Amino acid sequence: GCPRLRWIPPMDVLLVSRRALPASPSEPHWSRVAAHRAAVGLAEHEGVQRVRWICPLTTAEQPPEGLPPEVELLQVPGGHGSFGDPQDRLCDAAADRELTMQMRSRLPDVVHCFGMGSPGSSALPWVAERMGRAALVSVRAEEVLCHRLDLQPWNGVGPCGTWDDPDRCVRCCGEAVGQPDVPALAAGGTDPSQDRRALTALGFQNRLELSVGGLVSAEQILVASGPDQERLIASGLSTAKVAVVDDLLAFESSRYL
Q1: 3-class DSSP state of 17
Q2: CA distance 207 to 140
Q3: What is the dihedral sign for C-alpha 141, 126, 77, 83?
Q4: Neighbours of 3 (CB within 10 A)
Q5: Which helix (H) or strand (E) segment is 244 a member of?
Q6: 3-state DSSP assignment of residue 216
């Protein structure tokens, strides 16, 4: 499990969810569900004084509902990069800027980032560490390591274990274009023919470094399974940083207090 962070109540907690594509028009991405549960649980905990939630939203999404009034919801509207541009999909200047402004206005005791992958900012944990608090980060390995977000190669023999081969990534992602069952394309809104032409090996040259590099600054990385832990360690992350938890979506006060 995750070791206790070194803070004493009453606490100020800053949550940051990802500008992730929803699982379906009626089902938010898992990282939004986990952040929502954490916000509610923290707001009701006597050891917590303040809860802020930075919530980047894609253009088609509605803000989360059912939050207690104690939660400060900080919406960050905006679009997401094209599937044809892997590097652009790992950038989110608006989310980075909001995190910087919030930490500058009042430094929280704990920062918890939910979800890392495309679309979304790979820099959020680095921003948090630079501003004075190394972050707790919850991730799924397939979203960190794969532009498709599923580690499923074009030949159907998976999960993929080669994340640093640009030519292989171009082939896998090119085959994915136009397929609605691929998580990275589930929300639509892109031009398949344009995406297919835009995908090049050059665009994948440093995707792994961008995605994994943001996690190097994290204090602790939470995953839901042993295989996810093994993949992230194999990608270059410290063994001591990656911890397996029973349920990535559940709120557990011991992760904060």
Answers
A1: strand
A2: 16
A3: negative
A4: 11
A5: strand 242-244
A6: helix
Written as one string, the DSSP assignment of 84-122 is T-TTGGG--HHHHHHHHHHHHHS--SEEEEE--SSSS-T
pTM comes to: 0.92
3-class secondary structure for 31-73?
A: HHHHHHHHHHHHHCCCCEEEEEEEEEECCCCCCCCCCCCCEEE
R_g of the chain, CA atoms, integer Å: 18
Q: Are 75 and 57 in contact (CB under 8 A)?
A: yes
DSSP 24: B
Q: How many CB atoms lie within 10 A of CB 88?
A: 16
State how beta strands 11-17 and 110-114 pair. parallel
Whether 148 has a pLDDT exceeding 60, the answer reads yes
How many helices (H) and strands (E) would you count in the chain? 8, 7
Q: What pLDDT score was predicted for residue 118? A: 82
Supply 128's token pair. 């948090």
In the numeric block, the tokens 């004075």 are attached to 132
For the record, the structure tokens of 196 come out as: 């297919």
Write out the H or E segment, with its range, that includes residue 207.
Answer: helix 207-213
User: Using CA atoms, how far apart are residues 185 and 179, in angstroms rounded to an integer?
Assistant: 7
| Residue appearing with tokens 């001591």 | 240
Give the per-residue pLDDT at 195: 73
Q: Angle 105-106-112 (CA atoms, 0-180°, nearest 5)? A: 115
pLDDT at 25: 65
Six-digit token pair at 54?
């930075």
